[in-house]
Write a structure and sequence with these properties.
about 190 residues, alpha+beta
């Protein structure tokens, strides 16, 4: 029986996926729905959430109204790291386009109490583009981006907090550091209806 109980450093690992796209969209939906106090989307572009989660803005509005803090950290669509990453990826749906898709959705979300959006600082962008962290209370989905691959082709780890200083804390503390130095997105237009 002990071979089925996690007791070591890996006990915070709920599941791993060889590709982010291999994680079922229902997992993302369940984690968003279950979050009570914190949703922190610290992917460099985050756009896929709006394409894969039906009525995602409605869900975020409802979560914010329930008192859930929602933070979205993005890369700067005009930044050098973004341009460099576009050259590396060499795909039609560019990094800056994916960021702008998210900014457009955030604009459609409209101003909401408890919702904050920031760009990562220029000096942090190279670190941000290589690691996406998506926190939902005590669960986190982490994508360490492999060189030359887009996010959906990189692996994904599902972690659940079980101890102080474990893998969950290490990844979320890194994401918090990026947030602390990020700059508020000022140029997101006021929300509009679809």
């Amino acid at each position: 029986m002990t071979d089925r109980i996690k007791t070591g450093a890996d006990r915070e690992i709920v599941r791993t996926y060889p590709y982010r796209s291999a994680a079922p969209s229902t997992l993302w939906g369940e984690l968003v729905a279950g979050a009570k106090s914190e949703i922190y989307l610290a992917g460099y572009t985050n756009y896929f959430l709006w394409t894969q989660q039906p009525h995602f803005n409605d869900t975020l509005r409802a979560k914010a109204a329930e008192g859930c803090r929602i933070r979205i950290l993005l890369g700067d669509p005009e930044g050098r790291t973004t341009r460099d990453r576009e050259t590396i990826e060499d795909v039609a749906l560019t990094v800056s386009t994916r960021i702008r898709m998210t900014l457009d959705e955030v604009a459609r979300l409209g101003p909401q109490d408890g919702v904050e959006v920031r760009f990562s600082a220029a000096e942090d962008a190279v670190n941000h583009v290589s690691l996406s962290t998506f926190r939902f209370d005590d669960d986190v989905l982490v994508t360490p981006h492999l060189p030359r691959l887009v996010g959906h082709d990189s692996p994904l780890l599902h972690l659940r907090r079980a101890e102080t200083g474990g893998m969950f804390d290490r990844f979320t503390e890194s994401a918090e550091e990026l947030w602390s130095r990020g700059r508020k997105v000022q140029d997101v237009p006021e929300g509009r209806d679809r």
